[in-house]
Amino acid sequence: MTDTSGLSRRGLLGAVAGVTAATAIPAAPAWAADDQRPGALHHPKLDRYDRQIVSELSSERALRHLQVLSEDIGPRIGGTASEKRAADYIAGQLDRFGYRTTLQPFPVADKFIAQIEDVRGILPDDLCWQAGAAPGGKLDVSVEGPVRDVGPATAPVWPADVAGSIVIADDTAAARPAFVAEAATRGAVGVILLPADLVFPRRASAFQPAGLTDAPIPVIGVAQVQKRLIREALAVVTSLPLRISTKAHRNLISNNVIGERRGRSGANGPIVMVSGHYDSVIGAPGANDDGSGTVLTMELARVMSRLNTNATLRFALWGSEEQGLIGSRYHVAQLPQDQRDRYKAVFQNDMVATSWDPAITYWILSFTGLANTATDAVRASGERLGYAPQMVGPVLRGASDHQSFQEVGIASANFSWRGEISPAHLEPPYHSPEDTIAKNVSLERLQVSMELIGTAAYATARL
């Protein structure tokens, strides 16, 4: 049941039934409980409690939630209406599973977001065309015009027909104010700033261009893949008219979503938490980051709602992680010490389903670099499932919500599929418009992640 004191009600309870039929669906896993998993060293050696988890988990069910989050809703920017839609949907599902569900609100910074529309339908429509808007540009407007590429903003080559156009240029922060002023003086109706390419496998994300004050036209910052596609289109068509719209989102409130079911030990007993973050960055649908960790948490909440545990179970989806772990840090700050002392383990899941082939290592990431109850439990599950050789860690790394808990002494870790050389080797669609189900989600990796975390969390909570 949901605690509604001071909280909005849910609006997307039935959305899972109306997901987009056109999604390119990844292949679903087809193994039975005792089958050797892809990439595993040996057949699983499951105990009867493990079987209660793995026999019920469904990556296809999780996929339906992911379609709602990354396609029906799309980018879920902290504090905006899109993030709130996602919070309402998640809370409604936890309600259905029988948890006492709360939204925990907290304030976040203003956001400035742009949308690109292709008037002629030339640009690919299988990725996101959201971008960042400059806070110092013209906001809450929509402009339309043909694209004119002037090259680098530091040394633009201006064509004669700039008036009425949308100008694109390779961005340099120091050159922005003078370049935007010149574009406006020449009659441009808008500016699209293009980021420098990053070193593979990283790709530049959409950005909110800073350093402008009261620019008379909208100015937006796109992602590396959007830059490439716009320039490729300009190379083969005579005209590429675009419409860009900007919007300021102010006085924002983000939310954590937390579902709880009390264990046999009662109100003062231990707590085991499974978590992910449900927001995404500007310009990214967030299918893997971190829609995958969100739907893992939701599917485990469904399966574990039927199981008898000694510990209280909490399933948490954090808001505004992408802005600096704001939601989880707010949550931890509200916990009195006697509540912090009840936590046995927090299993954080951030990017657990990428389809990027080189992401063959399952990283166990600890903010302290040391082992704890959470890391030990997942290590033990990996041994039983045959995945020990693919697991590395614990390795010292923060940068996700486990850090908020470890900063105050709560046993926690983040779990994630990444490149084998380093946990910093993230897939190319990371934080990009290509972080979609079709381009960046493997249901096999999602299923394995659910099995690892589910069996570990149940083993920790059961006794």
UniProtKB/TrEMBL annotation:
Record GO terms (molecular function): metalloexopeptidase activity
InterPro entries the UniProt entry points to: M28_fam, Peptidase_M28, TAT_signal
Protein name: M20/M25/M40 family metallo-hydrolase
Organism: Kribbella albertanoniae
Record carries keyword Nucleotide-binding: no
Keywords: Hydrolase
Domain (Peptidase M28): residue spans on this chain: 256-453
GO BP: proteolysis
Signal peptide location: none
Cytoplasm as UniProt keyword: no
SUPFAM superfamilies: Zn-dependent exopeptidases
